[in-house]
Amino acid sequence: MAGRAGRRGLDTIGTVIMMCRDEIPEESDLKNLLVGKPTRLESQFRLTYTMILHLLRVEELKVEDMLKRSFAEFHAQKDLPQKEKLLLQMLRQPTKTIECIKGEPSIEEYYDMFLEAEEHREFVTEAIMQLHTTQQFLAPGRLVVVKSKSDDDHLLGVIVKNPSATLKQYVVLVLTGDCTSSALAPNLSSQSEKGPGDSQGYFIIPPKGKRGMDDDFFSSSRTRKSSGVINIKLPYMGDASGMGFEVRAVENKEIISICISKIKIDQVGLLEDISKTVYAKTVQMLIKEQTDGKYPPALDAIKDLKMKDMDQVKRYHAHNNLLEEMSKNKCHGCIKLKEHKSMMKDQKMHKDELDQLKYQMSDEALQQMPQFQGRIDVLKEIHYIDSDLVVQLKGRVACEMNSGEELISTECLFENQLDELEPEEAVAIMSAFVFQQRNASEPSLTPKLADAKKRLYDTAISLGQLQKRHEVPVDPEEYARDNLKFGLVEVVYEWAKGTPFADICELTDVSEGLIVRTIVRLDETCREFRNAASIMGNSALYKKMEIASNAIKRDIVFAASLYVTGI
Amino acid sequence: RGHGTTDQDGEVVATLCGVVERVNKLVYVRTLRARYKPEVGDIIVGRVIEIAPKRWRLEINFSQDAVLMLSSMNLPDGIQRRRTAVDELNMRSIFEENDVVCAEVRGFQHDGSLHLQARSQKYGKLQRGQLLTVPAYLVKRRKLHFHHLEQYDVDLILGCNGFIWVGEHVVVREIADLKEDEQKLSAEAETFTPIETRRHICRLANAARLLSALGFTLTVELIIQTAEASVSSNVEINDMLGAEFYVQTAEGEAKRRGDLLGKKR
């Protein structure tokens, strides 16, 4: 409350004086009153069909503009100027063009394929890890291709040790390239000077091993198994036979593919007694396997690992196809591939941000938009507007209906439901639109009235279902029950026929005031239906409504004042 | 039972000659060459015939004249205020007799005449252009009635009552700029429309006349197409209304419709 004191925008301090007449309230109450949070303002904006139809009739306004101005969009609209500035700024940033040395840049397609291939590969490698046949293959001595810390390089390695109770990762010895100093940080060592030919070698082999994710955690845990003691600190780097190598602990996901070949390794020599010769020998064996800069072929997922799931197999094939496409692409053997890839990545990020910003500023991000679309679809389906959003005859009639639900009344009119009814019966049925009390006593109706009531109810249900189909949040039963309340049908029928007021009050338990109010509103409804009839050109209905209007406009219900007669 | 029908011995009989339309259970007859039937929200182009107290009377293609109230019109200085007696006396400075005005139908009055409003920047007095009359049924109700043809720098307004305006493009200005514009206006009165624009206006107007004489529904695309066809066949502007170009256009349209039918099959 104290926050509302003072002139808005002019005063920074306000004074609140509370006068307590009888007793001073509790201190906590007072505190709450003075400095407590005010009620949150919430938008009560309801998107109705009438509103949409009226707005569509005017050429100038768009309904989206109307939606933008509602309070619900207040927060988004507040930020709008800032976002615009940001957008302009971003657009002004020059996009660096990627120059391709081989002619026209096809780096974009390549990058897209690359991304897709990565996705597939992730899925496939995860799937493969689930297969229990893979576990059999991942024994020490098996050659694997491991993903390095940077996204591109893939390193050949050999499994030294399987995960055990204490160390949940595979210990793998990987070749990291020529003459890298072991004193350097791990990051640098993995960015090998291996020519691009090597890194391209990955693409030629259909990989389907485990997913490589870079993980640099190391542990020097010990196990009690005889050959399980790891005496070296992982990651352990070194040089041997002209090639740098690294012993590192990797997760499942970092293993990209499992190769067919195996080599013999000496676990003890590698891990427990750190002897240079053992390392050198292992490295030499690895280098031998690595023929011509290509990695040895990998296990085929379907044949060797027996991957059976339909989805997985599909993805696997898709992955392979993509790899073939990529190898046909010009960029495949290009020296500048890495550079270009990183540039593309930046560009993509930039573009994504730009798109995101544009989306937020556009019409699509309005909260009411999906509902609006749904309602437009409903209107199109029942021919109130045509596909160009031009309002048709039915739409124009619906604009007239201000009391009573627009869709139901218009459908009722166009179905000629009031045709066979006498004016009194027609006006009795129309009372269903304006009566506002739910739990009135059930009236006893003549068969004709009961039929008409049922027809109206069915129309309402079908409209409710139609709306539900188009994703307007409406429940058909509730919709019908909320908008049609048949409690006063008999009362109005009797009144229209000329029964005195005292008698009709006996027919129901609804209070008299409510009856009078309903009948007065009913007269308004009659007038609207009459206007609708003149738009439609239905002169019979026009006359009927006039007669009905006159029938109910009499006596005490339409007396201008209860206290003064004669006016 | 709807427009153009009546009940005769329990049978629904048509009273007008036309196409039968059915909407749910409503049956009505839509004539092909109807008189203009105004709806709320229509864009209308009309000519001022009379200045009455606090209103203007406009002639539109209808059985009665339309009324444009002074209060439904933006004042020249743009401020929203009550219209005083001085404003009433100065009505003539806003619109005079025989001015062409563009407005929107707001509703009907009790006697059936139309009530108009011109409260937006797009509505109002139309200058520097041509007004054509075509049969009202050739202008169908669409989403957009105001068209700005950029390549010709021309405004084209298809009034639903059959009055078509082709004129020089008017830049829609914000109200805040109006003060500066007042100084500009006096300067503008001296400058004339460039001759190229005038040629375009005439060409488009002739295209519209031609199409209406041939009985084709008027749409912006069709008018532009016809105008371009005339340019490409090097027809002089005044020759456009001659017989050869008529025939050429009719043939073009026939071919186009034939193609459409062919595509559908």
TrEMBL record, chain A:
A GO CC term assigned to this protein in UniProt: Ski complex
Listed name of the protein: ATP-dependent RNA helicase Ski2/MTR4 C-terminal domain-containing protein
Example of a GO biological process term: nuclear-transcribed mRNA catabolic process, 3'-5' exonucleolytic nonsense-mediated decay
Gene3D superfamilies: 1.10.3380.30, P-loop containing nucleotide triphosphate hydrolases
Listed InterPro entries: Beta-barrel_MTR4, MTR4-like_stalk, P-loop_NTPase, RNA-DNA_Helicase, Ski2/MTR4_C
Domain ATP-dependent RNA helicase Ski2/MTR4 C-terminal: 386-564
Gene Ontology molecular function, alphabetical: ATP binding; helicase activity; hydrolase activity
Annotated keywords: ATP-binding, Helicase, Hydrolase, Nucleotide-binding
Lineage top rank: taxon: Eukaryota
Automatic annotation (TrEMBL), chain B:
Localisation: Nucleus
Cellular component GO terms, alphabetical: cytoplasmic exosome (RNase complex); nuclear exosome (RNase complex)
Source organism superkingdom: Eukaryota
Listed GO biological process terms: CUT catabolic process; exonucleolytic trimming to generate mature 3'-end of 5.8S rRNA from tricistronic rRNA transcript (SSU-rRNA, 5.8S rRNA, LSU-rRNA); nuclear polyadenylation-dependent rRNA catabolic process; poly(A)-dependent snoRNA 3'-end processing; TRAMP-dependent tRNA surveillance pathway; U4 snRNA 3'-end processing
The keyword Lipoprotein belongs to this UniProt entry's keyword annotation: no
Principal location: nucleus
Matches recorded under SUPFAM superfamilies: Eukaryotic type KH-domain (KH-domain type I), Nucleic acid-binding proteins
Ranges for domain S1 motif: 39-119
Keyword rRNA processing: yes
Annotated GO MF terms: RNA binding
CDD domains registered for this protein in UniProt: KH-I_Rrp4_eukar, S1_Rrp4
Coiled coil: none
Keywords attached to this entry: Exosome, Nucleus, RNA-binding, rRNA processing
Pfam families the record matches: KH_6, S1_RRP4
Family: Belongs to the RRP4 family.
PANTHER family: EXOSOME COMPLEX COMPONENT RRP4, PNAS-3 RELATED
Protein name, UniProt field: S1 motif domain-containing protein
Organism listed in the record: Aegilops tauschii subsp. strangulata
